[in-house]
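Researcher: Re-running this chain for the archive, since the previous output was lost when a drive failed. Same request as before.
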Amino acid sequence: MADPRRGAGGLTRGERIALLTYRLATQPGARWSLRELAAGTGAARSTVSADLTEVARALAQAGDARLETSPGPTGGVRCLPLPSPPRLQQTVRALAEALAKPDRVLAGGFLFLTDVLFSPEWSRLIGECFAAAFLGSRADVVVTVETKGVPIALMTARAMGCPLVLLRRDARVTEGPSVSINYISGSAQRMQSMSVPRRALRAGARALIIDDFMKGGGTARGMCDLLAEVGAQAVAIGVVVATDRPAVKKVAEYRSLLILEQPEDEAWPMRLRAAPWVAGAPDPLTQGAAPAQRPRRRSP
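Model: Regenerated C-alpha cells:
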C-alpha cells in the first residue's frame, strides 16, 4: 500500500528534511537554489522552502551551524558551520585542556601541536571556530604556509566556502611561475623564503591568513608581504596559539584562539588560556566579527 504521506514519486517530509540537511551540511558554503534543493524530492519549491525553515531552526537551536538565505533570482541558501558563541567557547576550553601537558613544551618555548592539528575532528572544530571569528572579513580565499597549518586552514576554507591557497617554502616547477620573497622569522631571526604560484591568487583577492603558532610574528609578516607582492590583500590573521612574549609582534593585528603564557626562562610551568576575544565572541551572523587582538606597535 502506498504511503499517503508521499507525493507522486516524492519523499515524506522527514525524508526531505534529512536529504536537505545532508546536501547542505556536506557542502558548507556552497549556495543552493530552491530548484536545486527540490530536485529529487518530488516537492514544490514552496514546500522545500518551508522544510528549510525547520532545518534552520534545528541547526540554530543546536548551535552547530546556521543557514544563510539570499533573496532574488541569484540568491539561494547555504549552510555555514559556525559554532554559536557558547559552543565556540566550549571548543576553545577543550582545546586548551588537550594541549595543557608539560611534555608538549619544546625547546625554544614552542608547543607540540602536530597530533591535534592533523586530527580530522580537531582540525574541523578549529576551522569552524576561525570561520565564526572571521566571517565578517569577507575573505575570498584562505591562505597558509606549508605544512602544519594546512589541515586547519583547509577546514576553515571549507566552513567559509572559500578556496585554499598554499604558500611554499620553495617554488615548485610543477606549479608554474611563482613570486618569492625573503623574510626574517620572528622567533629564530633567520632569513627564510616563501613563494606562491602566480595562478593561485588574483590581484585584489581578500585573503584570510591561518597558521598554527605565532611567537614573533615573522612568518605572518612574510605572508602579508608576499600577498602584497601579487596584489592580494591580507584582511585578517588567525592562529591557534600565540605566545604572550614578545608582546610586540611583527604584525599589528591578529586573532588567536589560545595564548601561551611563558615564564622568563621559557621552562614549564607555562599556562594556556583562551584569548580575551573568545569570552566576548559575538554571534557572527548578527553582530559581525569579534575585534582582533592588537599588540603594541613595533618601534620604528
